[in-house]
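Hi again,

Forgot to attach this to my earlier email, sorry! This is the prediction with flavin mononucleotide bound. I've pasted everything inline since the attachment limit keeps bouncing my files.
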Amino acid sequence: MSDAPASPLRQALMSALTLGLFGILGAALVAVTWSLTAERIAYNERQAFLRNVYKLVPRDRISNDLLQDVITIRDPRLSPEPLQVYRAREGDRPLAVVYSPIETPGYAGPIRLMVAVLADGTLGGVRVLSHSETPGLGDRIDEQKSDWILSFAGKSLGNPPLEKWKVKKDGGVFDQFTGATITPRKVVDAVRRTLLHFRAHRNELFSRPTQPLETTEAHS
Ligand SMILES: Cc1cc2nc3c(=O)[nH]c(=O)nc-3n(C[C@H](O)[C@H](O)[C@H](O)COP(=O)(O)O)c2cc1C
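Structure tokens for the complex follow:
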């Protein structure tokens, strides 16, 4: 007795089944890889964020998990998009807030900043999160390119006086860059607006209940 050759219909069905199985396996593999990669990217982003925060807020005095102690605010003077305010506390006492990201239009695109304000209204410091400014001109706002951004630490609305929160070319105290005034002008103004926001909303910023990030849209 010899095996009868499989009918063309059966062969077609088998091929379709095999193809389908490989398709499902492939999709599952992509999904698992994607979720592992997304987790790793989120973890790396959190670590990079914290490394920056610890340069701006005294790490040894923070007693809470500031990544969890966060609210979302909306204020077009600070950013066209909703932004986060992370609260650092020393026991029960307010220690600092970190606004992130403050966004302002630069010369070549949006400039995103992290601005840390200590509880007394003094700047813990400012860092550039992202920008598209011209290499060799506006990109000197980047900590990797120059020390300019470090000059904000310790300043407040009274130091210098409010009317001096400008680049020198406009009568203020902050250096502009040779051949690039627009970028530093925008950054100084964004930091000034952040300090004004803090002065107007300090108590509310520290006392508002934490909002888990995924539900903030519904609450605000
Ligand atoms: C190709 C090119 C790129 C420039 N990139 C920047 C920049 O990134 N940031 C900036 O402030 N100015 C940049 N400038 C210079 C500005 O156009 C402007 O002349 C300068 O900021 C001085 O501004 P002011 O007239 O307000 O003092 C660039 C100019 C050119 C031609």
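The pocket of flavin mononucleotide is lined by residues 107-108, 133-134, 137-138, 169, 179-183 (CB under 6 Å). The longest strand covers residues 93-105.

That should be everything now.

G.
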